[in-house]
């Protein structure tokens, strides 16, 4: 009770009801461990010397995710890229003792969205792209500096830290976008998305040309699962027709342009 005699609001409960939470316990996908809220999904990789969190979510995800993270020993946080919806809580986790990992090519993107202005990947995302510029210019994540800036070519970095996983460069959405290949799962950040509860091409890319090459890389890998930064994990077989169609369209555009 507060001084008025009314029950004090449980902010965490209200937040969870406004922004429903889904985890691997309610929606098991292979052996992935994930926390999804507000169409933002963060993942845990278990390691020999502590756990790794992939991406950190937004302000509204922090209350519930902080409770969820008590189940793990997070020693490292890998940011697939430095957009605010992925790195907003990075400073909090770093303050709690986790080491932050970020690709060198996204170093200047931190709190500076327009240092890598994005373009629409499809005509239907043109208007949305303008809103991204506005939102990206206004909303900046709390300042942080990564503990480790790595080259996109450092595939063995995670193995050296005790994780049975390899870093996969997936530039396009940002210049420094990376993924993680662990067993039959490719944690792909925003190289692909399920944000509208269906497989789709990410709406924005600093370089659609690089994004096309990253999608081609995903096809070559052909994992069983894609663990996206937005939306719940999906089977690659469900994503492949969308990727194939997009790549085919891009090839036709290049042929006409050439």
Question: Which key terms come to mind for this protein?
Answer:
258 residues, alpha/beta, Metallo-beta-lactamase, Chain A, seven-stranded mixed β-sheet, five-stranded mixed β-sheet, 8 helices, 32% helix, globular, disordered N terminus
Distance between the termini: 71 Å
Structural domain tally? 1
Strand content: 15-25%
If you compute it from the alpha carbons, what radius of gyration comes out, rounded to the nearest whole angstrom?
18 Å
Q: Characterize the biggest β-sheet.
A: 7 strands, mixed
The total of beta strands comes to: 14
Tell me the CATH architecture: 4-Layer Sandwich
CATH superfamily, by name, is Ribonuclease Z/Hydroxyacylglutathione hydrolase-like
- Overall mean pLDDT stands at 92
- Spatial strand sequence of the major β-sheet: 1-2-3-4-5-6-8
What letter string, H or E per element, gives the SSE order?
HEEEEHEHHEEHEHEEEEHEEH
Which consecutive residue ranges, at least 5 long each, have pLDDT under 50?
Answer: 1-8
């Amino acid at each position: 009770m507060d001084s008025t005699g009314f029950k004090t609001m449980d902010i965490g409960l209200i937040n969870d009801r406004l922004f429903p939470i889904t985890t691997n316990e309610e929606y098991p996908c292979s052996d992935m461990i994930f926390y999804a809220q507000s169409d933002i999904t963060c993942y845990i990789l278990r390691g020999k010397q502590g756990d790794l969190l992939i991406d950190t979510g937004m302000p509204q995800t922090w209350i519930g995710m902080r409770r969820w993270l008590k189940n793990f020993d997070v020693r490292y946080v890998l940011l697939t890229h430095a957009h605010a919806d992925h790195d907003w809580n990075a400073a909090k986790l770093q303050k709690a003792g986790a080491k932050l990992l970020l690709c060198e090519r996204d170093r200047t993107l931190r709190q500076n969205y327009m240092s890598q202005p994005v373009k629409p990947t499809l005509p239907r995302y043109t208007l949305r792209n303008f809103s991204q510029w506005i939102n990206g210019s206004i909303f900046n994540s709390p300042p942080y500096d990564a503990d480790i800036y790595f080259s996109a070519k450092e595939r063995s970095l995670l193995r050296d830290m005790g994780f049975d996983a390899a870093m996969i460069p997936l530039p396009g959405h940002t210049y420094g976008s990376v993924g993680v290949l662990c067993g039959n799962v490719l944690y792909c950040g925003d190289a692909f998305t399920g944000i509208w509860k269906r497989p789709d091409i990410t709406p924005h890319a600093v370089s659609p040309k690089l994004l096309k090459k990253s999608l081609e890389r995903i096809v070559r890998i052909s994992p069983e699962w894609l663990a996206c930064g937005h939306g719940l994990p999906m089977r690659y077989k469900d994503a492949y027709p969308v990727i194939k169609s997009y790549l085919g369209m891009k090839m036709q555009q290049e042929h006409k342009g050439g």
